[in-house]
Every structure is written in structure tokens, then in C-alpha cells.
Amino acid sequence: MLLKYFNSNRPGILLLSPFISLVLWFHTFNRPQELNLSENVSAGPFGRYLDGLISDIPLLSAVIAVILVFFYGQLLVSLNIKFFFLETRSQLPQLFYITICGILTLLRFFSPALAAVFLIILIIYRLFGTYKTEKLSLHFFDAGFILSLATLIYLPSVFFFPLILMALFYFRTSYWQEWIYPFIGFFIPVFFWASYLFWTDQNIGLIFQEFSRLFQHAKVKTTYSLIQLIFYAYLGFLILISSIHMMLIIGGRKIQSRVFHIFFFWFFIVGVILIFLIPSSGIEAIYFTGIPIAFLLSNYFTTCRNNRMNNLLIGLFILLFTAIVLNDWTGFLPLAYSF
Questions:
Q1: Residue 10, Cβ neighbours under 10 Å: how many?
Q2: Reduced to 3 states, what is the DSSP secondary structure of residue 85?
């Protein structure tokens, strides 16, 4: 019953995303002082400028964050509509993305990482647009250029550069020039950054100092409620069974759908590396990792059998989401853990 409803395009489903967004952020709007203003070591020069404009007004920061997360979720739905790599034109990617990104209070405020997500999604659009294009494509130049801008906003974005090369490997079969384009595109904003430092009598070595901050530990400790930890444990379980399901069915998919899902697999790997191995990225990397997770879970729940077990799985997801919202409002589970 639940699966059938969520896989439909009824008006209620279209209204569910803004409803979930407002429910998750409602408590934050009432208590915007929960924003942690500690130094963000992962922010690039552009990111620090943007953060300085917004972070001093926590309520504005929260409003911008919910608008961006909702917008990004809609971009994910549009991505599937345009390239059709899921079995249906489902709203589930947006629902999952909003939920994953809005569970933690710290992620309900604007940050350089959240700003950079837009550029990463734009890169995905550009890369997917090259699939089976016969002529020489400048999209890889665009991808490198956009990724460089994202890096100037959020330094760990640089680790997504191998995804551009993987897209070249999986999507293209000719034109050696396309292997050079991403490097040229990435270098141009860095060149202008170096030129700015030179003409303002600053040490160009500041660029290397910026990138050395990637391996500094963030000073912000994330606090998790018990119910949030249970949610993320359950999310990990869903990722596991969705991955097994994907391995079982991917051989029967069209080649385009297959290579796009392989791309998202490597995207997920990079996101996990950011969370666990890159000290500066911190919990904000969930904004990025949430993209492939949203598509992975959407793929599972749009292709699995409509039986009691799978309805129970999505029912438990809804139950945990409801418990987190109630805990935000009432604090009925006061236990908290900081990492």
C-alpha cells in the first residue's frame, strides 16, 4: 500500500516534499541560535565570503538552507526525468534527499558545502549530456571549470575530479582531446586566483596553504540524538539491501541506465571517503553523499516487489523520520552523543 502510493504521481506526493522540508526545519526556525559558528576549515576563499554574509543571521541561514535542499531535491528528480535511469519518473529522489540532509540540526543551516552542491549537480548534468554524443564535447571542459569554482567554495570538492575522468572512461570512446579539457577547465579559476594574489601583493603560496587545510580536523563536533543514530543505522541497512538488489538487476538494464548507476556508485565511494577519511570535510559531506543514496534507495523502492516486507521497510523509514521530528519538538529521548 505504501509503496504503491509513493511510486505514484498523485497531487499528495508533489506536496509531500515541501511538507517534509517545513516539518524538519520548523523547530530550527523557532530556535535558530543552535547554529554552531565555529571556524569552517573546509571553506575555500569564496565559501568563507558567502558564509560571512549569511552565518551571522542564523534564521536567514536556516531559510536559505531549506530552500536550497528542496531545490536540489527537485534537480535530482529532473535529472532522472531528463536521462531516465530509474524505472519510473518518481518523486522519491527528492523525498529521500530532503530527509537525509535534514535529519541533523547542523545541516539545516547554510554552509559552503551546501552552496557547492549546486555546482556538483550541474557537473552531473553536463557529464550525462555527453553520453553517446558523437562529436567532440566541451562539456568536460565545463565540468573541470565548474568543479574548480566548487573547490573555491568548498575545498573537499576537489576530490570529485576523478569522477569526471571516470565519466570519460564510461561515457566516451574517442577524442583524446577530451581527456585534456577537464584539466584546462580546472586550472583557469586557479590561475585567476593566483593572479589576484600576485596583483594584490599576496603570497601565491597561500593557494597551497588553502589545500593543506583539507587535512586539518574540523573543530565542530556533531551531536547526535539516540534516535538520529538509530536512523542512520537503519539507513545503512537500507543502503546494503538496495546495493544487493542493484547488483541483481543491473545486468537487465539498458546500457545507459547501467553506466549512470555505475557513475553513482563511484560518486558514493568518493562521498564516503570525504566523510570518514578527509578530516576537514566533516558531516557536511552528507549533502554530497545524499545524492547517490537518494537514487539508490529510489531505485530499490521503484523496482522491488510490492509485498509486506518492502512496505514494512518504507514504513519503518517513515516511523523513524516521525520519531526524529517529535524528538526535535519534545526531547522525549534526551540522550545525545558527540563525535
A1: 11
A2: coil
Residues 284/117, Cβ–Cβ less than 8 Å: no
**What would the DSSP string read from start to end of 147-186?**
HHHHHHHBGGGGGGHHHHHHHHHHH--S-GGGGTHHHHHH
- CA 262 to mean position of chain CA atoms: 17
User: What torsion, rounded to 10 degrees, do the Cα atoms 57, 61, 67, 68 define?
Assistant: 140
**Whole-number pLDDT of residue 37:** 46
Is the CB of residue 120 less than 8 Å from the CB of residue 157?
Answer: yes
What angle is formed at CA 59 by the lines to CA 56 and CA 64, rounded to 5 degrees?
95
**DSSP string across 87-143:** SS--SHHHHHHHHHHHSSGGGGS--HHHHHHHHHHHHHHHHHTTTT--S--SHHHHH
Question: Over the stretch 152-167, which tens digit does the pLDDT of each residue have?
Answer: 999 999 999 999 999 9
Summarize pLDDT for 236-274 with one digit per residue, the tens. 999 999 999 999 999 888 888 999 999 999 999 999 999
* Span 187-215, average pLDDT: 87
Residue 75: closest CA among 116, 24, 118, 111: 118
First-to-last C-alpha distance (Å) of the chain: 39
Residue where the block lists cell 586566483: 193
Give the type of residue at 52.
G
More confident residue, 174 or 261: 261
Buried-state track 217-230, b at ≥16 Cβ within 10 A, e below 16 = ebebebebbebbee
d(CA 309, CA 307): 6
Domain ranges of the chain: 2-338
pLDDT classification of 305: cutoffs 50, 70, 90: confident
Neighbouring CB atoms inside 10 A of 168's CB total 20
User: Are residues 224 and 336 in contact, defined by beta-carbon separation less than 8 angstroms?
Assistant: yes
pTM comes to 0.94
Element (H or E) spanning 20, and its range? Answer: helix 11-30
| pLDDT confidence of residue 125 | 96
